Amino acid sequence: MNATEQIQAAQKAELESMANMVEKTMNAFERFAQLNLQTLREAAQDATEAMRAALSARDVQELMSTQTDNPIQAHSQKAFAYAQQFAEIAASTQAEIAGAVNEGMTRMQQTLREAMQSATHNLPMGSEGAAALMQSAMNFTSQAVEAMQKTQTQTRKMVADSVQNLTQTAAKGAQEAAQSRKRRAS
After folding, report:
1. Separation of alpha carbons 164 and 182, rounded Å
2. pLDDT tens figures, 20-36
3. In degrees to the nearest 10, what's the CA dihedral of 45, 50, 54, 55?
């Protein structure tokens, strides 16, 4: 396979890779939409149950007890569950897309290396300077790809750490709210 055919094959593979990433992104948006719809449905059901309980109260004391049945703890637990599910969707989608990008970069780097080797072998005598220039450009490209992959890995770790911190903060907030409610009830 000559250099032009190798590059065309790589371009075709990259087009497929981009289509795959678009599909992954759309799947993530669908999952986010489903999560939001589920959360809205649960909130509407909770509100309906609270209204029914309030309307079925026979006296003021019963009405007050229906309105103070762990609302902070229940809402904080639901917010925590929502944040956790949201973070899981975001993290898994980011990991899938990062993997696809890394595969594409590696594939393109290999294709360029093979095309350069093929072109170098076909150069006429006395073209050593051009071959050295092409090799230098290839080395620079390889270093740039490696730097991008390293940066991407660091970014992915930073995002994962941020998601974990957010989850821990939400869990701590839920616990503190529950403890605060218990102290006020005592």
Report:
1. 27
2. 889 999 999 999 999 99
3. 0
